[in-house]
Write a structure and sequence with these properties.
Blueprint (H helix, E strand, L loop, with lengths): L2 E6 L5 H10 L3 E6 L9 E6 L25 E4 L1 H9 L3 E3 L5 E6 L1 E2 L14 E6 L2 E4 L5 E5 L7 E4 L4 E4 L11 H12 L8 H16 L3 E5 L4 H14 L3 E7 L7 H12 L3 E5 L1 H8 L5 H20 L5 E5 L4 H5 L20 H5 L2 E3 L7 H10 L4 H4 L19 H20 L8 E15 L2 E14 L7 E2 L4 H14 L3 E6 L13
Parallel strand pairs: 1-2, 1-3, 3-4, 4-12, 13-14, 13-16, 14-15, 16-17, 19-21
Antiparallel strand pairs: 5-9, 6-8, 7-10, 10-11, 11-12, 18-19, 19-20
The structure holds xanthosine-5'-monophosphate.
C-alpha cells in the first residue's frame, strides 16, 4: 500500500494533514520531525508547520537524508522555512504575524497549484517569512503580503507553500494536497478503513510480541475499539478492566458489561463505587474531585494489575484531540490545556504505553468501530467524561445527588432520542446545581434544587455551540424532570458556547 509520511514539527494541524490525505484514499502516517521515514512503499514526504521559528536556538530540523530518498517533498508553513533554510535561501523573522485569509495568485504553470486554484482563498498563520527562495527554486504562487507563497524545485522534486492547505479555510486546500499526492507523488488511492484495521492489528502484534497487555475499558467508543483491536491482535493476552466508580449513568455498568460480553472481550469487572464515594465525601472543588478520582482509579486499577505478573503494556484509547490538548505530549506542540486521558496511569504503573488510536479523529474511530462490528448504538454514544457524574453534580457529591442527576439525565437523553436528535448533537446531559430556588406545587411553597440542561453541537469537542433545540423538546424535558425527579422544582437551559464556556460545568 502506498504511503505518504508527514514529519511532525509540532503544528496543531499535523494530524489534519494526515487526515486529509487519508480522505483522498491514500495511507498517511505521522512520524516525529527528526526520524527518517522507512522507504518501503513511500511515495512522498510532507513537512508540517510548527509553533517554532527557524530563528530560535536549536530549531527542529529534519535529517537532510529525507531529500535523498527520491520521493517528492512538500513543506507547509514552517516546513517551507525548513526547506528554504536547508537549501540556502533566506527566511526573515517578522515581528508581525500574518494570520487569516489571503488570495493566492498562481504566477507560473506548475503541478501543485493548477490554474483552478488561481484566485482562491488560502489560510495563513505564520510569523517568519521567506525573503529569498533558495537557488534552483522558482516562485509559483504569491499573495499580497507573501511574494513567495509557493515555490518549486522540479529537479529536486521539492515544493513548499506558506499557507495551510490542510485547513477548511483554504478553499482549494484539498485540490492542492490531491495534486501533490497524485500528480506529483503518483500515489494510488488504495487505502480504506478495512486496511487500517490490518495496519493497526499488525502494529500491535509487532509491538507486543508474546507479552500481555492490560487496558481500562470505560464502555465508550474509544476504549471499546481499542479492546476489540487488541482482542483481534493478541486474543486473551489482552485483559480489559472495567471499573465502576459509582459515577456512571443509570444502568450503565450492566449495559457496558453486556456489550463487552457480546464482543467477546476478556474483561474484569471491579465495583469500587463505595471507595470512590468515600474518598469524595465533603469535596467541593472540581479540580480536587478530578484529582481524587484519578488517584483512586489508579489505585484500583493497579490493584487489579498487580494480580498478573507478566503484563508489560498498557493500552489506552487516546485520540488526536486529547493529544493536542495535553501538556504531557512529547514533541514540539504548544500546550493548549492539560487533559485527562493522557498521562497519569503509565507513569505511575511502569507499563509501556500503546495508543493505537492516537492519530485518529473521533469520526474515524467511529468508522473503525463499525468495521470492527461494534454495535451502532455504542458507536454513536455521546462522549462521557472519565470523572463521570462527579463533574455534573456541582458541589459536594452524595449518593442521593448522583441518583437525582441520573434520573434527570435519563429524561434528557430519552427526549432527545424521541425527537430524533441524539445523533445530531455532540452531547446532551443534565447538571445538578448546588442552588435551591422557590417554587410552588399544588398550594404549597417549595424550596428545591435546580437542574441545568446542556445540549451542544460540536465536531471534536474543542469548540462547541449550544444546540437550538425546538421549544417543544425543551418543554417536554423540563416538564418531565420537574414532575418525575424528586427534589427538582426548576430546570434551566444552558445557552453558552465553548469558548469561552466549557462543555462540562464541573
Ligand atoms: P470541556 O468541558 O473541557 O469538555 O469543554 C470537552 C469534552 O471533553 C469531555 N471531557 C472529558 N473526557 N475525560 C474524558 O474522557 C475527562 O476527564 C473529561 N473532561 C471533559 C467533555 O465531556 C466534552 O466532550
Amino acid at each position: 500500500m502506498d504511503r505518504i509520511v508527514v514529519l511532525d514539527f509540532g503544528s496543531q494541524y499535523t494530524q489534519l494533514i494526515a487526515r486529509r490525505i487519508r480522505e483522498l484514499g491514500v495511507y498517511a502516517e505521522i512520524i516525529p520531525f527528526n526520524k527518517e521515514p522507512d522507504s518501503e512503499n513511500l511515495k512522498g514526504i510532507i513537512l508540517s508547520g510548527s509553533p517554532s521559528s527557524i530563528y530560535e536556538p536549536n530549531p527542529p530540523l529534519p535529517s537532510e537524508k529525507i531529500f535523498e530518498l527520491s520521493v517528492p517533498v512538500l513543506g507547509i508553513c514552517y516546513g517551507m522555512q525548513v526547506i528554504t533554510h536547508i537549501f540556502g535561501g533566506k527566511v526573515a523573522p517578522t515581528n508581525k504575524r500574518e494570520y487569516g485569509f489571503a488570495k493566492i495568485e498562481v504566477v507560473k504553470d506548475n503541478k501543485l497549484l493548477d490554474r483552478g486554484i488561481d484566485g482562491s482563498t488560502v489560510w495563513m498563520s505564520h510569523g517568519d517569512r521567506i525573503e529569498k527562495p533558495p537557488e534552483g527554486f522558482e516562485t509559483v504562487g504569491r499573495t499580497d503580503s507573501s511574494p513567495f507563497a509557493a515555490i518549486e524545485n522540479k529537479r529536486e522534486r521539492v515544493w513548499a507553500v506558506q499557507f495551510h492547505p490542510e485547513v477548511h479555510h483554504t478553499e482549494k486546500g484539498k485540490e492542492v494536497l490531491s495534486n501533490f499526492v497524485f500528480n506529483i507523488c503518483g500515489a494510488k488511492p488504495d487505502w480504506n478503513m478495512g486496511n487500517l484495521i490490518d495496519i493497526l492489528v499488525d502494529r500491535i502484534k509487532r509491538g507486543v510480541g508474546s507479552k500481555r497487555v492490560i487496558g481500562a475499558i470505560s464502555g465508550g467508543v474509544d476504549s471499546t475499539v481499542v479492546a476489540v483491536l487488541m482482542k483481534k491482535a493478541i486474543g486473551d493476552r489482552f485483559i480489559g478492566v472495567f471499573v465502576n466508580n459509582g459515577l456512571l449513568r443509570k444502568n450503565e455498568p450492566e449495559q457496558v458489561l453486556e456489550a463487552l460480553k457480546k464482543l467477546g472481550v476478556n474483561v474484569i469487572y471491579k465495583d469500587a463505587s463505595e471507595l470512590f464515594l468515600k474518598k469524595l465525601k465533603g469535596v467541593v472543588n472540581p479540580e480536587e474531585k478530578r484529582r481524587i478520582i484519578g488517584h483512586t482509579f489508579i489505585d484500583v486499577f493497579s490493584d487489579v494489575a498487580s494480580k498478573f505478573e507478566d503484563i508489560e503494556f498498557l493500552a489506552q484509547g487516546t485520540l488526536y484531540p486529547d493529544v493536542i490538548e495535553s501538556v504531557s505530549v512529547k514533541g514540539p506542540s504548544a500546550t493548549i490545556k492539560s487533559h485527562h486521558n493522557v498521562g497519569g496511569l503509565p507513569e505511575k504503573l511502569n507499563f509501556k504505553l500503546i495508543e493505537p488510536l492516537r492519530e485518529l479523529f473521533k469520526d474515524e474511530v467511529r468508522e473503525l468501530g463499525r468495521q470492527l462490528g461494534i454495535d451502532e448504538k455504542l458507536i454513536n454514544r455521546h462522549p462521557f467524561p472519565g470523572p463521570g457524574l462527579a463533574i455534573r453534580v456541582v458541589g459536594e457529591i452524595t449518593e442521593e445527588k448522583l441518583n437525582t442527576v441520573r434520573e434527570a439525565d435519563e429524561i434528557v437523553i430519552e427526549e432527545i432520542k424521541r425527537a430524533g436528535l441524539y445523533n445530531k448533537v455532540w452531547q446532551a446531559f443534565a447538571v445538578l446545581l448546588p442552588v435551591s430556588s422557590v417554587g410552588v406545587m399544588g398550594d404549597k411553597r417549595t424550596y428545591e434544587n435546580v437542574v441545568a440542561v446542556r445540549v451542544v453541537e460540536s465536531v471534536d469537542g474543542m469548540t462547541a455551540d449550544w444546540s437550538k433545540l425546538p421549544y417543544d423538546v425543551l418543554n417536554r424535558i423540563s416538564n418531565r424532570i420537574i414532575n418525575e425527579v424528586k427534589s427538582i422544582n426548576r430546570v434551566v437551559y444552558d445557552i453558552s458556547s465553548k469558548p469561552p464556556s466549557t462543555i462540562e460545568w464541573e
